[in-house]
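Assess the record.
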Amino acid sequence: MTASQQADPSASDVLATSRSLLARARRRDDGAWEKLVELYAPLAYFWCRRGHVAEQDIPDVVQEVFRSVVVGIDTFRKERPCDTFRGWLRTVTRSKLCDYFRSRGKTPGAPGGSDMQRRLEQVAAEPDEEPDDAEESAERALFFRGLETIRHQFEPRTWQAFWRVVVDEKSVADVAAELGMRPGTVRVAKCRVLHRLRQELGDVE
C-alpha cells in the first residue's frame, strides 16, 4: 500500500473498482447509467433550450439523446486530448435537435418554410467556439455535480485543501499555512482530486 492510500483509506476501494464512469456504463452497469444521466442530462437540457426546442418537448428530445448514447457509447473513443464525452454528447444532442426540427416541419400545422430551414442550418452549422457565460455556467454546474460523486472518496483534509485552492482560488502557500500542511502536500491533494474527477467523467478540466 502506498503512502497516499494510507493517508486516504478509501483510495484502495476506488482502485478496486473501475475508475471510469464511462467504462462502467459500457459494461451496462445500471448504477453507472443512472449517474451518467444525473450528471449530464442538465447539460443536454441546456443545449435543447439554447437550440429553441419548445419547453414541453425538451424531455422527449433529451430522452432521445440518451437513447442514442446507450446505443452508441461503445463507438466513443478518447483518441485525442480534444476528444471528450461532453463534446461527443453535444454532437449527439445536435443531431437530435436536427431530427426534432425536421419532424416538426413535417407535422401538419407546424411552422415551416424559411424559418424552419434557418433553424436547421443554425443547429447543423453551430461552430465549436469558446463557450459564452451561459454555457460556462452550465458546464461549471457539471463540474460541481461531478465533484459530489467523488467527495466521499477523500479524507476531509484532502478535500478541504483541494477545495480551497481550486474552488476558492487561494494560493497553495496560503492554504498550506491555513491547514498546517506542506505546500507539496496541498498540491498533491489538488492533483489527486482532479485526477479522480477526470477518471470519473473523462473530460472535466
About this structure: Residues 1-18 have pLDDT under 50 and may be disordered. DSSP finds eleven helices and no strands in the chain. The chain has one domain: 3-201.
